[in-house]
Every structure is written in structure tokens, then in C-alpha cells.
Amino acid sequence: MYPISTNLSTLGSRYTLIFDIAAKRLKHGVLGMFLEQSDQLICGVESEGISGSYLPFSDLPNHFQAFYQTLEMNSVSYRAVNKEGGYDISITFTSPFCPENEKMNTAPIFYTDIEISRNSRPHSLVCVRKNIEKGMLRFGLQGSNLNAAPKDNICDFTYEVETSSRFVLGDFARTLHLKLYRDGTEVKTVPCTERLINKDGHCGKDGIFEIPFILSDEPFHTQFVLCGYCDIRDFISVNGTLHNLLYTSYFDCIDDLMDYALDTVEDNMRQTAFVNSAISKSSLSQSWKDFISFTFQSYKMNTVWSYNNQGKKAYHVWEGNCMYNSTMDVEYNNGLFYYTFFPEVLPTLFEQWAASENGKGYIAHDQGEAYSISNAKYSYPMIVEENCCYLLMLHTYCIYRGSWETAASHYEVIKRLADRILNADTTGNGIPDTGTDNTIDDAIPAIQNAREQTYLALKSACALGCFAEIAQNLGHTDEAKTALSRSRQIMVSVDKELWLGDHYGVCTDTSQNGYRRFLTHEILSGPMEGKDSYSIYAENGLLYPFLSGTAMPYLNTDRLKQNIAVSNEICSTEFGCKHSHDSGSVWFSQNMWRDFTASYLGHDMLDNVDRYWEFQKIMNTGENLNLYIDTFGENALWYYPRGLTSVGVLNASLRLQINNFTHELHISPLRQSMRIPLVFLADWKKLQMPWVTVNDGRITIENSQMLHSYKIILQEWQIHESQIN
Fold first, then answer.
1. Are 542 and 461 contacting, i.e. CB atoms less than 8 angstroms apart?
2. Among residues 406, 720, 441, which one has the least CA distance to residue 555?
3. For 599-610, what is each residue's pLDDT tens digit?
4. Across residues 488-506, what is the average pLDDT?
5. What are the C-alpha distances in Å from 304 to residues 40, 193, 635?
6. Residue 417's Cα: distance from chain center in Å?
């Protein structure tokens, strides 16, 4: 693919590499995004008789005729072609990752493999002056604030990060305040160390390794290991308790970290390659493969995995340039990754969110900003929405695990959440009309703030239906019946009051008096603008019940199918669908969520990814550096984690339903030919995974022995009436 700016990050440890194409620089740092260095990455070849040529991440001359980029889920590769010297150079950066391997996942290391080979194609367009037979590979980092301390085949790069404040540009511009401590005392600068090692070469005084090579029929290969360490403790505040980054519990110093990286390189690379293969060896389009790889790394750079002195762990995710922590509605979308690749972190997340309820009857929108993790910082709560998000995620987790234990441990909290949704209706039709501010904060008031919204009505009905099943199975029959009755009532009211012939309207609210316009904060008045609009949000609450095969009573599937198809057409723009046809913003994560829901309803909208991916490429070429940006139009959410919604395409392609209480897998492939992994059932220790292969409609399962305890049901997707009376 044509090179774009992208990043590679380690999970929860903040160590990040940003390949800034426009600036010809590598941004890197062990304290994470917005606190990185911008330095020259020196990587090139010198050979007698031809000009030296370097990859375009430095000011050194670039005489390559072509430069390509390849993305995998945990790797970024570049290949440059030099026709003058008759050689190609390839460099692959890898961030180790494999579920259930906490030590490897948090280790702040990158493996860098470099290969030099003869050109594989005839030199038909460029006159070759000389096919080189030998040369010198030069590789390293250089920068004005970077101190290099080379010793044989190792070089330590040290620098200091000022932590008092950083101003972050964007539509949500803000100053990032960090308070970092050493031995209980606040510090203004933090010393950081990165170490580069290569067993084949020698590092010069300038911090650049020089490695001689000879070209033969076999490519020349060498590997560097880059690791980073911040020798500071207790700098993350989690509800008033100081935390350390989790990797420091495994590695006391950078020496320990480098020893581990070298000792485990083969195993770490093998595990990471297996994870990468879940996407690269699937039948997903190249747009999907690139998009998932790109969004996963943008997610990883936002993660913070920490622990306190008592060993209590915490896991949080920054919200990109907004920097809110563990935003409930953002993680609702990222949950598609947790349920497939990373379920081991979900109990921690559910506990953290439950703690934010603190008897108030609603889940907090966020858990503070940046490294200060505590009370919500967003300007208002999103009561009905966040309660629904929590209930839907928790219910699906229990179905996927085949256990109500986690729900039981938080039952008093979820009972208060359900009660708050029940009490949010004051008109008697069941639809919430209080606490209805939601996350769609760049939309018209009808979408974001209105009372009796279709979006929150159907989401509430689904959440209450899921709560009813939890309550029933935990012995709270009366509470289950009350919630289920309200769920049915909402469905009936939505069909009666909000169906407009070919689509569901946005809300019943008729006046926008007192509401404010996005950005300008102008106080509005008059009739509610856009109340009858076409919108992409009506079905938002259905995807989690679809994933677990949980039926919602009185769900009008014919109308939902019509609504989702018509709204997709009318709200469409060049890059995706707007919130509504009279709104100005596109959110790509919500477009994907809609697309996946559409799959279960029988519509194939998965090729929309071509439009979403095209926008990401535009926003990361030229002078642009946004990494994953979730918005187009009136907003700018960049460096953002929510693109990880993309992983949901795996389940959506198969219209997969998983129930570990009944040990049933329902599979109804959306297309006649595909090969998709059942990632949820992977054995990460043995590096095995079942795959569903469809050829002209004929379904086979590879590694089917891994499914011996499951009943596989191959059928058209159906909705069944709930069994709760």
C-alpha cells in the first residue's frame, strides 16, 4: 500500500512508535502519546560506487525508486526498491502480542527485522549502474535532545520528558496535565531510556549501528531489539491510590527487560505471528485487513495497564485527543475486541465501571483524564445510555462465559442501573424521557439530547431484556418480570409512536427550546429540528443480543430491516453515513456498528469499509498526522481507540452467535465464499484456532476437534421469543 503515517504500540505500557511520513521522523517515547520525542530514524545502505540511500524517516538522501508499506495486526513493514544498485531493503517492526500472555503483552519492546536482497524484477525502466555485491547497513536514532551512549553492540538513548503540561491541538484542544512522582515527591522532568541492541554489528559514537553485508542468492537478514523503560514509580493516580505501569512488576530495570526480549524472541515472534494470522489469513478484503491492523495499534497506544503496591491491577483506555479514561460508551464499541481476543481483562473493566456507580444509579461517562484516574471529567452524565451499555456488555460476557458469577457479584449495582432506566419514563409509554443526554455530542439536539429518543428507547428495551434474563437466573423473578414487561412496552410504543412509514423517527420531543447548538453553544428555540429524520442509531442496542443469540420480545424485524437499509442510503456521504440526513458529522465506529447489526438483519453492508479506510489514508498523508480518526465533518476525534470496533467484522461475517450455557454456536455466513476464524475459541497456548470456511455455500470447519463440546447449528439467523414469562 501507499505509505501513510501510522503507529506501533505495546499494550498497556505506553511505549509507542509513530512513523510520521510527512515530517520524515520517528516519534517515540516510553511515556506514551503527546509525550514522545521526534527524532530521525536512520535506516539505509551505503555501498561503493553508488549513492547512499535511506528510508524517508530522516534528512539523509533517499534514492529509492519505490517505497511501500504493509500492515499486519501487530507489525508495520516497509519495502524500498533501489534500481541503481539492484537491491531491495525491507524493514519490519513488530510489537509482541498474544492473549493470555500478560508479561509479553506489557513488555515495552519492539523487534525490528531488516532484510536486504537483490531486486526480484527486471530493471526495465531504470538503468542499473551497478548491482552491488556488498555494502554497509546503517541503522539507529539521532536527535538534538537524544543522548546516545554506545557500547559495542548496544546503545542506550536517554532523554528527559517535561511533564508539567502539554497543549494538544484539535477541536477538543486541551492542556494535558501530568503529575509524576518519585519517592512520593512530584517531579517536573522524567528521565527515560531506550536501548537498541544488535548482535551482528557495532554502534558508533553517533548512535548509529554499522553492519557489513554481502548479497548472494539468499537475502541478508539482521534483527534489532528496541526496548524502553521509565525508571519512575507511583506516577498514575487511580482513585487516590498511586499505581505503577504493570510491566515494572515483571522487570526491575532495563537490563531485565532486554534480557527477556533477547531470551524469548523466537517464542514471542511465533505467538505474535499466530495472532496476526487471524486477520492476514482470513478472506477479509484488503481494506478490512489494513483497517483492523491500523485501528488496533491506535487502540493499543491509548491503553494503561497498572498496579498498586498491594498488587491490585487496573486497566484503562484513554479516549484519544479527548484523553478521558475508560469512557463507557467508547468501550461499549471496543468490547467487540474484548469478547473475541481479550476476554481476560473484562472482569477488571466491569469492576471499575461498577465502582463508578457509587450508589448514584448510573455508570460514570468516564474515569478522569490522562494519568489522573478518578471521577468523571465530562461536563454531564449520560445516564440512560451508559447504564444500557454496561448491562448489555455484562449480559453478553456472562453468556459467552457460560456463568452468571460476574453479574451476581455486581447485582446490587445492576439492579440500581435497571431501576434508573425504569424510572426514566415519566409519561407512561415506557420510553425514557429523563437522563437522555448521550454521547453523540456533535449532533443536533434531536440526536444528542432529546427526550423519548428511538435510539435510547430500543437500547433500553434491549438492556432491560438482558437484565431480566440475569435477574431470572439469579433468582430475582419479580425484578425479571418487571424489566421484561417494560422492555415489551417500549418496543410497542416505538412502533406505535415513532414509525413513519419507511423509517423510525429520531424522537417524539417536539420543542428544542433551551437546547444548545454544537460548538457555538447558541441557545435554540422553536420546533425540534430533525425529529423525523432518517438516522443510523435506531438499531444500536441490538448488536450485543444478536452476538449472544438473545431474543428481544416484540422486536419488529421487518421494520428494522427497512429502517437500516433506507437510512443507510439517505444518510450516506462519500466516506460514510452521517448521524442523520440533516446532521453534519460522520462517526466511523458507529457506521461499523450499524454495518455489523445490518449483517444479522440480513443486509450485507461490509464493503462500506472501503470508504472508511479511504478517509483514514487521506487524514494520514501529506501534512496530516491523525492516526485513527473517528470523525469526518464537524468534529475531530484523533489518536482515537474506538476504531477497534473493526474487529466485529469477524463475527458479523458469520452472523455468529455464542452461548456457553447451552454450548451452541449458531453460524449463518453472510456470503457464499469466505474463510473466517473463530477467535473466541482459540487455544493461545497451543496456537491453534478453528476456522469456518465457506465455498459456494458449503460450510466446513477447520480444526473442528476444538469444538467437540459444542453443538454447531448452521441456519439462517432467527430471532426467538424470550423464555421468560
1. no
2. 720
3. 999 999 999 999
4. 97
5. 27, 19, 25
6. 26
Q: What are phi and psi of 227, to 5 degrees?
A: -135, 160
Contact between 552 and 462 (Cβ < 8 Å): yes
What kind and span of H or E run contains 238?
A: strand 236-238
Residue 480 has what pLDDT? Answer: 98
CA gap 679, 669 in Å, rounded: 16
Q: How far apart are CA 488 and CA 500, in angstroms?
A: 20
Asked if 321 and 31 count as a contact pair (C-beta separation under 8 A), the reply is: no
Residue 343 grid cell: 476476554
Enumerate residues 6+ apart whose C-beta is below 8 A from 260: 103, 107, 109, 250, 251
Q: At what angle do helices 454-473 and 411-422 cross, to 10 degrees?
A: 140
| DSSP code of residue 324 | B
Mean pLDDT score, 696-702: 91
Compute CA distances 618 → 78, 599, 629, whole Å.
19, 28, 11
Q: List 93's β-bridge partners, or say none.
A: 76, 112
Order of strands, sheet of 674-677, starting from the edge strand that comes earlier in the sequence:
674-677, 691-695, 698-702
Q: In what order do the strands lie in the sheet with 236-238?
A: 313-317, 303-307, 241-245, 236-238, 372-373, 368-369
Ramachandran angles phi, psi of 186, nearest 5°:
-65, 140
Q: What is the DSSP string of 392-431?
A: HHHHHHHHHHT--HHHHHTHHHHHHHHHHHHTT--SSSSS
Q: Are 342 and 101 in contact (CB under 8 A)?
A: no
Asked whether 616 and 291 are in contact (CB, 8 A), the reply is yes
Please state the separation of Cα 528 from the chain's center in Å. Answer: 35
Q: Which three cell numbers stand for residue 168?
A: 494538544
Cα 432-434-438 angle, rounded to 5 deg: 85
Q: pLDDT for 659-678, tens place per residue?
A: 999 999 999 999 999 999 99
Output the CA torsion sign for 514, 519, 522, 527. Answer: negative
> Amino acid letter at 22?
A
The per-residue pLDDT for 720 is 36
Q: Does the CA dihedral 431-433-438-443 come out positive or negative?
A: positive
> For residue 478, what are the contacts with CB-CB under 8 A and spacing of at least 6?
none
- Does residue 32 contact residue 7 with C-beta atoms inside 8 Å? no
Higher pLDDT, 184 or 570: 570
Distance CA 669, CA 567 (A): 24
C-alpha to C-alpha distance for 704 and 693, rounded to whole angstroms: 11
Given a cut of 90, is residue 161 above it in pLDDT?
A: no
Count of all residues that appear for the chain in the document? 725
H/E element, 570? helix 557-570
pLDDT of residue 270: 98
Q: Which of 31-35, 336-340, 570-574 has the lowest mean pLDDT?
A: 31-35
658 backbone dihedrals φ, ψ, rounded to 5°: -125, 130
Among 596, 717, 711, 689, CA closest to 341: 689
Instruction: Show the cell assigned to 44.
Output: 539505509
- Amino acid (1-letter code) at residue 92: T
Alpha-carbon distance of 103 to 557, in angstroms, equals 46
**379, 369 in Cβ contact below 8 A?**
no
Question: Phi and psi dihedrals of 483, rounded to 5?
Answer: -65, -40
The span from the CA of 219 to the CA of 706, in Å, is 39
Could you read off the pLDDT of 674-693 as tens digits, one per residue? 999 999 999 999 999 999 99
Beta bridge partners of 99: none
